Automatic annotation (TrEMBL):
CDD domains: TLP_HIUase
EC code: 3.5.2.17
Family of this protein: Belongs to the transthyretin family. 5-hydroxyisourate hydrolase subfamily.
Catalytic activity: 5-hydroxyisourate + H2O = 5-hydroxy-2-oxo-4-ureido-2,5-dihydro-1H-imidazole-5-carboxylate + H(+)
Protein name stated in the entry: 5-hydroxyisourate hydrolase
Complexes and interactors: Homotetramer.
SMART domains assigned: TR_THY (SM00095)
Originating gene: uraH
Annotated Transthyretin/hydroxyisourate hydrolase domain residues: 2-106
Keywords assigned by UniProt, alphabetized: Hydrolase, Purine metabolism
Taxonomic source organism: Acinetobacter seifertii
Residues reported to bind substrate: 5, 41, 104
Keyword Nucleotide-binding part of the UniProt annotation: no
Enzyme class (EC, first level): hydrolase
Length: 107
């Protein structure tokens, strides 16, 4: 399973209503699209046949900041990661602010 959440570190709050796309990174094939909930989370992209290999999450954060009337240097954040064991849960959090972002492998 793949999940994610976004925290707006500038406000110290979850980033709700952010579109997140999941791609197979080798082919750039779109696998799923989701929108973060009020807690800034996408709990499950609903993928039944997850395979080993490279993936990419694309976070469309420009509309999020625009709705808050905040300019951002990074309109989109792309994070590539590699799935080695399809039985594991892969949680990829994103911390954003108007001029920086950071990520890590969560649990």
């Amino acid at each position: 399973m793949i999940s994610t959440h976004i925290l707006d570190t500038n406000l110290g709050k979850p980033a709700a209503e952010v579109e997140v796309k999941l791609f197979h990174a080798a082919t750039h094939e779109l696998i799923a699209t989701a929108t973060t909930n009020k807690d800034g989370r996408v709990s499950d992209f609903g993928i039944k046949d997850l395979t080993e290999g490279p993936y990419q999450l694309e976070f469309e954060i420009a509309p999020y900041f625009s709705a808050k009337q905040v300019k951002t240097f990074f309109p989109r954040v792309c994070i590539q990661f590699f799935i080695e064991d399809i039985k594991q849960h892969y949680h990829i959090p994103l911390l954003i602010s108007p001029f920086a972002y950071s990520t890590y492998r969560g649990s």
